[in-house]
Amino acid sequence: MAEEKTAPEAARPVPQSIRNLHIKATAALERNPDLAIDMLMRCVVSCPFFTEARTDLRKAEIARYLRKHKGKIAKSPLGAVSVLFPKMKISGLVKKGKGDEAIAEAEKVLKDNPLDINLVKLFAETTFAAGRPEAGRSTLEVVKNHIPADDADAFTVLGKLYYAIQDYRRTRECLERVHAARPGDVEVSKLLKNAEALATSGKWEEASESGDFRKALQNKAQVEQLDAANKSVKTADDAEKIIEDTLAKIEKDPKNVNYYLSLVGLYLQQKRYDEALAAIDKAREYVGQDPSLDLKYSDVKIEQFDAKIAELEAAGDAAAAQDAKLERDQYVFNDIAERVQRYPNDQHLRFQLGEQYWKYSDLDASYLDEALQQFQISQRSPKDRVSSLYLMALCFQKKGMLDMAVEQLTTALESLPSMDRQKMDVVYLLGEISEQEGKLDDASKYFKEIYRADVTYKDISDRVQRIYDAQKKAAEAAGS
What we know:
mainly alpha
């Protein structure tokens, strides 16, 4: 049984002494990473609910590991057996109700090889059993960014772990990669379909973003109903029977939108896209204008386009496939623009529209100003703020307004305390602009900051070497 907690994790205050220790640890990351890791470990052991410190700890451990192994991820020769003995001790602590002690033990096991997927699995499962899912979730997010895209085994594990905490959006992100590599994997296909079905309720997506899984559990009965209706169908006859049952439920209760969403999931399993779209239209008759239904309609349309493109490519009709891709891209652009008109206060939609304008700015330079307009609005959203500022900087860079690009990036850095992938992108662009302006010392500072954290990032090794060579050449020229 997990330890009883007196307050939700997000609401519990972190003692100032631990916050001070966290600040000291982050300040020591560059000059003494081992000391910083030890201090961060003390933070999370003292306050297991201090997610920010745990995230910084995991990133620091991974950076140290990659430096030690020259950017390579070494798999344990023992595989899953490597967790056998520590798992016995950790499981014993959980059974005794000592959840936080169990997590502390799992941290020790993970410390020296934070990218070993078997150890990550052990740590995440320990946090779930101990009643601290956010600790596991934050670790999964950091680890996911370092797993090679073609490591289907690792993404299978990650997908199952996300499924266990009902984070169905990220379940799909992981398992879609696996499904593409292993289309015949029945277990993965089933989990993927179930995640899609459960996500249609909307509440789970909200929970996965906020971390408030208790709120999602209030709708448990509703979700179980959708899960049962959208089970993996083995034959066309099975599908037809379930569809008939769902249609009968709709006839008895035509205002129950969840039945329509369940029906959409069933049609999608059978690739009956037109019928899925018709079901969404029917649901709209009862709820009127609804953002979640609009998004679902868009997802179905895009999936329909993708299926058509795949069919044309398989038939060897490259020209028709290219036409279909253009038609799909035009639909995506128009659809997002139309939804922004319907929901002008939706800042995330504004961000998506800005992305579309940026994507096509090479074709029409006027799109840069259109993109900037959308990002200026979407930066008000905490979720999209940093990404908006970064893309605004890219727009200004393309327009030749380098000083304004630097302003956006400098502002973005204020929200990025740890050297994660997003911060690396921002710092890299600052280095790129500094090099573009001929400010080699500034460029060197930015590129070295990334190089110290992750030598495998983009072409950072070549960038640093090129700056060194340019500085050496400039010094020789000055001395001659």
